[in-house]
Amino acid sequence: MSAATFVNLPVADLDRAVEFFTALGFTAGPRQPGGESAQLTLGGATHLILHTPAAFAAFAGAGVCDTATSREVIVGLGVDRRERVDALVDVAVLAGGTSLGPGQDLGFGYMRGFRDLDGHQWSFLHVPG
Asked: What global pTM score does this model have?
């Protein structure tokens, strides 16, 4: 099966969130009519859809999670080199994100995490070939 991945997240400031993820290497695509959502692409089949809280709630059919007290998802993205893990988290922090601490050697790979501008938790992971 060949499938694309679409991660949907609510964000408080759509323009600022697009800038943040563009700094991490996502490519911004066209905005949906009405300006309530924006699509970004990380790789050929990996996409991020950002929504205003109202648009996300309407799409999900439920309220928006308070990321200060809860996690609705942890998004993990694989990268090609261990050094790239740290470099990308450093970029996220410079763009306004929050580091979750030093990288972790998991035995099978290396991971480091951060929270984006809206408190969503992300990690970059390198698993050698």
From this structure: 0.90
Could you tell me the sign of the dihedral formed by the alpha carbons of 44, 8, 13, 58, in that order? positive
DSSP 8-state class, residue 101 = S
**Tokens standing for 1?**
């099966």
The C-alpha atoms of residue 41 and residue 34 are separated, in whole angstroms, by 20
What are the average pLDDT values for consecutive 10-residue runs of the chain, which has 129 residues?
Answer: 85 96 93 86 91 93 91 92 97 98 96 97 94
Helices 82-94, 14-23: axis angle to 10 degrees equals: 150
The answer to whether the CB of 82 falls within 8 A of the CB of 110 is yes
Residue whose pair of structure tokens reads 């911004």 in the numeric block = 28
pLDDT value of residue 1: 54
Pairing of strands 121-126, 110-115: antiparallel
For 70, which DSSP code? -
As beta bridge partners, residue 51 has: 10, 37
Residue 68: burial class (beta carbons within 10 Å; 0-12, 13-18, 19+): exposed
3-state secondary structure of 63: coil
